[in-house]
Amino acid sequence: MVGIAKTPEPPYFAVIFASQRTEGDKGYGVMADKMVELASNQKGFLGVESARDKDLGITVSYWDSLESIKAWKENSAHIAAQNKGKTEWYKNFSFRVCKVERHSFFEM
Question: Ranges for the ABM domain (predicted)?
Answer without folding.
Answer: 29-83
